[in-house]
Write a structure and sequence with these properties.
Blueprint lengths: L4 E5 L3 H11 L4 E6 L2 H11 L3 E4 L8 H10 L5 E6 L4 H10 L3 E4 L3 H13 L4 E2 L1 H16 L10 H11 L4 H8 L3 H15 L4 H10 L24
Parallel strand pairs: 1-2, 1-3, 3-4, 4-5, 5-6
Helix pairs in contact: 2-3, 4-6, 7-9, 7-10, 8-9
Amino acid sequence: MQKPRLLLADDHAIVVEGLTRLLEPEFEVVGTVGDGRAMLEMAAGLKPDVIIADVSMPLLSGIEAVRQLKRKDSRTKVIFLSMHSDVELGVEALRAGARGYVLKHCAAESLSRAIHEVLNGRVYVSPRLSVDVLAAVRQVAVSSDRPAMVLTQREREVLQLVAEGRTIRGIANILKIASRTVVFHKSNLMDKLGLRTTAELTRYAIQNGLLAAGEPAFSQPTPRLALAARA
């Protein structure tokens, strides 16, 4: 019988190597990538059964990558493997379209089970978070008046790249848009979020799960994103 096909997305080579060794006896690892944009490209080409993705990746966060993946009606299942144990991040991951959320320190014991669960049409969340995360997801689903800070897809992309310390020109090259358009989106972000400086945008990004605090994402200490944002 053919093994389920996996794509691994994490910007830490040592994590990818460890996951490959952990999973290959039972699954087929068809590819590995180190950022969210590469994840989208490789998923389109390889069409894996399951993607195991980090929440915090360069260029495009795991959560934003999943939002974009799901808009294309992809049937690929996604499990987030994360070091972040806060409930809000787990909720946002599931709302974005993921079917699993596994804490990294539980991967050795839980990841194989999580993969089988999502392949069978179920949702898997690490036991430490499962009750609170699933209850919060249900509450959001039935609430019609939940306040939300609505950021567009492009604004979320610009926010992450600004938080990574990239220049306006660098962001324009990555997103293939004009520099003045980047400035426009950055200004809109600051107005919507009530922030005044790039440092405040970076701090906001770190606090909300776009990037992993304390890691160098580009050439500076890194950050994370606005998860209340809806696509």
